[in-house]
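Hi everyone, sorry if this is the wrong subforum. Our group has a chain we'd like a structural model of before ordering constructs, and none of us has done structure prediction before. Sequence below.
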Amino acid sequence: MTDHVLAIDQGTTSTRAIVFDPAGAVVSVSQREHEQIFPKAGWVEHDPVEIWTNTEWVIASCLSRAGVAASDIAAVGVTNQRETAVVWDRRTGRPVHNAIVWQDTRTQPRIDELAGDGGTNRFAESTGLPLATYFSASKVAWILENVPGARDAAEAGHLVFGTPDTWVIWNLTGGARGGIHVTDVTNASRTLLMDLRTLDWSDELLSVWGIPRSMMPEIRSSSEVVGTTALPDVLHGTPIAGILGDQQAATFGQAAFEAGESKNTYGTGNFLLVNTGTDIVRSESGLITTVAYRCGDEPARYALEGSIAVTGSLVQWLRDNLGIIQRSEDVETLAATVDDNGGAYFVPAFSGLYAPYWRPDARGALVGMTRYVNKAHIARAALESTAFQTRDVIEAVVADTGRDLDELRVDGGMTRNDTLMQFQADILGIPVVRPKVVETTALGAAYAAGLATGVWTGRDALRAHWQEDVRFEPRMPEDERERRYRLWQKAVSKSLDWVDDDARILMGTTGT
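Answer:
Right subforum, don't worry. Here is the predicted structure as tokens:
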């Protein structure tokens, strides 16, 4: 029976394939990491060819592990790291440059130039986004201006752009031999090139960035059949029926379909989304306005989002750059050997600070250091920084909505860390609720695809799948909670105003 759904989750550090059964339970998983490329300070790149090769591998591996045939797969859903920009030649399928990752800050001079004429909210009315290196537009513009021949090839109609969902689907449907060039409204809303009201590319913004419209993918709904797979001997003729940016997919996977419902995903970064229904709500507290999802021809649903750049990737940094742990999961064991952070606070502003600060001049700071502090305290401070940053964005949500959160639903790989989840509840003063299926990003993509192909009858059926696993109740006294948060805010203040001309020269990024 054709009743399973395959989700492809193309993330910042790895690509995964997961097969889900009709109850939304995981049948099998396959995952492969890809290289993180750092050509200069502040530059972050991925090899799109490596990503596609890994995607092919995880699909084949996952189906094999599941013991299901391609004919058992009713639909494919795709979710992805957002804002990361890939530009390739439609004639050959070859990227003209490495993908420029959402964390990359090389385009800050262009952002500053545009913000000088109208401020960082110059385009927020139409896009919901501030001017920031985070979003795709400046990355595409950089490639066109800095890769020899790219501008002429783009003007001739040979180059195309896409976020990783577009790149994966183009290859999944045939690549240079007939692949489709599409994205969905959630990913399009992260480019700084789509108008939230029309759900179409803005000619004004394309002109501002110097990006030919011929480069842009067709914008589709998050849940509808957009094409079929074309992988001989692996997956051929299966409908691709779900596309969602990773954070919107996690929201969908948490069944946060209606206004006021929310989730917080703990991954490479942290992302808190609060559904605002069909209303486009503007934040006055440092959040961004984004599309939550769109099913078929229904009106789009919108959300407020608090985007945090560095959480899980800080643990990866402790592993890869400092070598104080061998595996990412070892951070909990190490942190648990001490009772507290020893007075150390870690502000991981490696790419500046995102919501609610939007301070590109900030850089990472480890403060409060004494001879007493050891690697276990640093590990604990790294975990605690995730919880503190989450409180920062929740404070912004409360300010914008005028409503306190009763609880926080969480998902993502870091939520398996009980030490972190307990501290999160302590520092928020509200329960933190972890579902039985924490891989809600892939689950959301599967849900969107299954809805469009009849595997599930509607969103109420998906709500019935959600089950609570663990509820972490706050234990910390209020005065202690507030004292620690005040120290965190003090630490944040020490990370600001770091990037200036002297720092740019030291980092070798002047003029690029």
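For your construct planning: The chain has a mean pLDDT of 91. The two ends are 55 Å apart (CA to CA).
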